[in-house]
Every structure is written in structure tokens, then in C-alpha cells.
């Protein structure tokens, strides 16, 4: 009458979604005023405004056109 040990290994999937560290787009969030100009101007929809700060939604679709850099009134975007 063996009790099957029903151990369920709850491996916590604390897998933090690793932000792509390799992003070639750098946003100075301290200077960003959340004006949305960059996200509107980006032809590839790379940028998104979250809590009044511009964030990189998907660096892989960025074509490095640097329109966002040019349009930002606070000079807070650098595209390498
Ligand atoms: S460089 Fe061009 S494609 Fe890349 S985030 Fe800026 S505007 Fe978008
Ligand atoms: S254009 Fe500049 S200040 Fe405006 S949301 Fe984009 S990064 Fe921020």
C-alpha cells in the first residue's frame, strides 16, 4: 500500500523576461518627458510610451533610421 509520493516539483518559473540587453537604442528615461513624438514618428513602431516614458517595444524591428533621435526635443534617444 505504498503511497505514491506525489511530489510536484514546483519549480518556480521566476524566469524574468530578460530584457534584451543588446538593444542598440538607448533612452535616457530621466530626461524623457513622455511627449510621444518618438513613438509617433517611428516608422517601425519600435517605441512605446509607458508611464510617460518612452520604452523600446521591440528593438529587432528598428531600422536605425534615427528619426526618433532627430525628433526628440530632449535629446534623450541614442541609436547606435
Ligand atoms: S531609429 Fe528609426 S526605426 Fe529605430 S526606433 Fe528610431 S525611429 Fe524607430
Ligand atoms: S520624443 Fe523624447 S521626450 Fe518625447 S517621449 Fe520620445 S524620448 Fe521622451
Describe the structure.
The structure is a single chain. With 80 residues, the chain is of the alpha+beta class. The protein has a domain of 55 residues: Alpha-Beta Plaits (2-Layer Sandwich). Helices cover 12% and strands 18% of the residues. The chain has 2 helices and 4 strands, in the order βαββαβ. Strands 1-4 form a two-stranded antiparallel sheet. It has a two-stranded antiparallel sheet with strand order 2-3. Strand 2 and strand 3 form a beta hairpin. It is globular and about 25 Å long. It starts with 24 loop residues before the first strand and ends with a strand. 14% of the residues are buried. One iron/sulfur cluster binds next to helix 2.
Amino acid at each position: 500500500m505504498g503511497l505514491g509520493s506525489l511530489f510536484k516539483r514546483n519549480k518556480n518559473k521566476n524566469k524574468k523576461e530578460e530584457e534584451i540587453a543588446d538593444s542598440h537604442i538607448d533612452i535616457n528615461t530621466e530626461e524623457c518627458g513622455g511627449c510621444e513624438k518618438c513613438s509617433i514618428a517611428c516608422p517601425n513602431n519600435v517605441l512605446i510610451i509607458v508611464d510617460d516614458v518612452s520604452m523600446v517595444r521591440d528593438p529587432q524591428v528598428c531600422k536605425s533610421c534615427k528619426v526618433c533621435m532627430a525628433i526628440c526635443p530632449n535629446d534623450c534617444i541614442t541609436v547606435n
